[in-house]
Design a protein that fits this description.
Chain lengths: ~425, ~280
Amino acid sequence: MDHAVRAEGISKLYRIGAMRDPRTLRETLIDALASPFRRGEWRRAREREEDRDLWALRDISFEVRRGEAIAIIGQNGAGKSTLLKILSRITEPTSGRIELHGRVSSLLEVGTGFHPELTGRENIQLNGAILGMTRREIRERFDDIVGFAEVERFIDTPVKYFSSGMYMRLAFAVAAHLEPEILVVDEVLAVGDAAFQAKCLRKMSDVASHGRTVLFVSHNMPAVKSLCQTAIWLREGVVVERGESDAVVARYLQHSTSRAGREDVARVIAAFPPDPAMRLLSIRTLQRGMETTNVLNGEPLEIEVEFEMFAATLGFHLTLQLLDLEETIVLESIHNGDSERPPLVAEGRYVISAIIPENFLAARPYQLRIDAGIANVRSCLPEKVRLNIDVQQSGIVNRAYPGYATPARIAPLLEWIVRKE
Amino acid sequence: MRGESTLVIEPSSPWRGVDVAELWRYRELLYFLVWRDVKVRYKQTILGMAWAIVQPLMAMIIFAFFFGRIAKLPSDGIPYPLFAYAGLLPWTFFASAVNSGSMSLVGSTHLITKVYFPRLLLPLAAVATVLFDFFIALLMLIPLMIWKRIVPSPLALVWVPLVMIVTLLLVAGISIWLSALVARFRDLRHVIPFAVQIWMFATPIVYPLSFVPPRWRALVIANPMTGIVETFRASIFGRPFAVEALVIALVIALVLIATGSIYFRRLERMVADVI
């Protein structure tokens, strides 16, 4: 048998209508006791709800060869998590069929079922059992797990005393010793510090190269490209493309940046819950005083943030980040980061601009992220505001070689000193 | 578990029965879930194991004072504190098991949304965990009987295990039903502790079944906990009891398990989406 996984026509319907399913006994009783006239009314109300039903997945079919590592990529809400949940048997498809040939393990998170009061040893046993290991398997792999996690000295300490790094290492170590034939895995790599992530990635590619089948759902495009030969791109519950991962990832990234413009930013800001200290009013990107998201790298770029402070706040600051499409933070800057100590920002309305100089950005799409926060207290925004910009070549960097597309994330103009001897 | 195994995922029938073979495959997880809850319980509470004894013991003292001394309720010739404690033993088990069993699905959202296993393990594990408290509280009966100089009837060795099997079946049936209903109807969880409280006074615990007027007797025996409490207590103190009441409890337990499993399996298909 050549295929490890064969999915045919998978669809999943979520019912969003609040009135569709009474959620409380009280509502159910009222519904049942209501007069026949009102029942008819309810039914009509429910029928109207039907157009609010959501097809999270529509007719998804794919096959995964034995030993193949395949990535499932897509925006949030594209149906990745639903597909993962169906593959993990957490929820059932509304229609369709999947056959999995071989012992399956699925990892939607690491450390499922970990209990803070239990010791490292006890949690390994419990988590192993939850992930489907037998007691014998747990016993046999116990020393390897402890060694991998590097927690030998603390193995009989309750995990509530573990540092978050130790906790994550232990949790991942159990998962890493599952040894299934088919591994279904979510973005468990998105946690922990860089060194730990690298270790997890190595372990994952070990798994993939040992002839096991891996289904990997991720936002981490470098990880997708290095782990998986193949990728499936989902959008709004349907497969957009399936093919070689480098090519699919490239087209996916291209597509995802062309969306999300200025209107989105205004909408996002307007929907933020109120914060006692401040309110964002607008975020704009300007060149020569004109608002634009098509940026020329030969001109300075002004990122203008307008906000209102309700009270004088010590340590209030804006943070600007610039990210590439693979979500690597290329630069970060704090608006009053160069003052001697956290300054007191007075009440009132502000317009603050950051200037990225000309001949600094590379000709490539970027994402700007703006955050507002109070040092050592909290972030004033529920999430960073994201704004996509597309940078075009117009500056003097590399202008001698016009056809050349730099692989660099930034392309600042450096001083080259040429001495002819 | 080795070799070629094929797993098929497709929409299931709403009327499927319990997959006993699958439950058996997952027996180790059941063991670990119980093991976890017992460990955590005895680690977390300061009183630890003592809690299992303190609960029925405090109730015994209060009942002995108010119902035995002040209200002077009859106790079939058994010293009232012992009478109350012996009745409270199966009752406390029943009440705690129903309370924690009914919350077992909604209390394990983090597991249900992250990993697959037969969800039926959750109410079963919750019930099994409470059984530990019962055994500890049962041991406490020994010093109490020495104190009142009462020798237990040898018949108890046969009847107490039998009664406990019936109680386990009953509690499992109720927990399977309620855990699914609570996941479906969120407001139900507030009703259950209250209903259990009322149920206690409808069960001959602070009073003997012989105290119930004949015209109400049939109604009281229809309560499955009547047969359980009466048989448990009477067999320990070597008194006559109505076996038919225990048989009624057994029949009700089996009906609840059968119907509850069907409802549970219907809900299990979508529990991760609604919980």
